[in-house]
Design goal:
This protein is of the alpha/beta class. The chain has 2 domains: 134 residues, NAD(P)-binding Rossmann-like Domain (Rossmann fold, 3-Layer(aba) Sandwich); 120 residues, Dihydrodipicolinate Reductase, domain 2 (2-Layer Sandwich). A 6-stranded parallel β-sheet has the order 3-2-1-4-5-6, sandwiched between helices. A 5-stranded mixed β-sheet has the order 8-9-7-10-11. A hairpin with a 3-residue loop joins strand 10 and strand 11. Helix 1 runs parallel beside helix 11, helix 4 runs parallel beside helix 6 and helix 9 packs antiparallel against helix 10. The longest helix has 15 residues.
């Protein structure tokens, strides 16, 4: 069986981790075929350094050449990546899942073209349980996220309101509201709640509190779900990557999702 040709859009912290693993043939049945980046010169240096012969394309060519495109770019570039990929019917793995809450037309585009949008579990835990509960009736989904201060700096929600958290000395709740509002105000920080909302009862009924905590060194997420089939709580403490807005486990979650594509044994819903 031919290997699945993967294209990576963006070679930041997450994209580089995935590219290294695929270039080393660590995921059977999946191969790094091409990348799309803003700086081809730096990308070529990186690819040469990991021993990859992947081509560097514009996003339109990436969409045509790859079997699956993984979006690893800043949230602001999400639409310019997603539209050409989904228009060609190519499978699309979305890391910036919060953008799907703002652009539901992309899901409609995937349906029309025959593409599939894949949202990996990312930095959260237990989405299998949430999707299973959603087959019945979920009454409520509530999430509390606590992050180190530097993992929240630059969020549009804080900048629009002039909220300065640089000098705080104790935990401060900086947001309380729906998953949709959180994804809009913190597009680089809480993609986890978007994935949770998409798996469960949607972005308007899923609620979240976001706390900035100067004492933390990890990103902490706690989820409480009440449904007609089960009541459960989930919590995880993620070690930040080189990018303080992203946990190390995010890239590993993508690799786990890729491994399932051709695995002889697939565990989990």
């Amino acid at each position: 069986m031919a290997a699945i040709k993967v294209g990576i859009a963006g070679l930041g912290t997450i994209g580089k981790v995935i590219a290294r693993k695929l270039a080393a043939n660590d995921v059977p049945g999946v191969a790094l075929d091409c990348v799309a980046v803003r700086d081809p010169t730096r990308a070529q240096e990186f690819l040469d350094g990991i021993g990859s012969r992947a081509n560097i394309y514009a996003i339109e060519s990436l969409a045509r050449e790859a079997d699956l495109v993984i979006e690893c770019a800043p949230a602001a570039a999400f639409t310019e990546i997603a539209v050409p990929v989904l228009s060609t019917g190519t499978s699309f793995m979305a890391i910036s899942a919060g953008q799907l809450l703002e652009r539901p037309e992309l899901i409609a585009l995937a349906k029309e073209s025959g593409a599939q949008i894949i949202v990996p579990t990312g930095a959260l835990i237990g989405l299998d349980a949430v999707t299973a509960a959603a087959e019945g009736e979920i009454h409520s989904v509530a999430m509390i996220t606590r992050k180190p201060v530097k993992g929240l700096l630059g969020a549009p929600y804080l900048e629009r309101r002039g909220i300065d958290i640089v000098g705080i000395t104790e935990p401060v709740r900086i947001f309380q509201g729906s998953a949709r509002e959180a994804a809009r105000g913190f597009p680089e920080n809480v993609n986890v709640v978007a994935a949770l909302a998409l798996a469960g009862i949607g972005p308007d009924r899923t609620t979240i509190e976001i706390w900035a905590d100067p004492a933390l060194t990890r990103n902490v997420h706690r989820v409480v779900v009440e449904s007609d089939s089960a009541s459960f709580e989930m919590s995880i403490q993620n070690i930040p990557s080189e990018n303080p807005k992203t946990g190390r486990i995010t890239a590993l979650s993508v690799l786990a999702a890729l491994r399932k594509l051709r695995a002889p044994l697939r565990v989990g819903t």
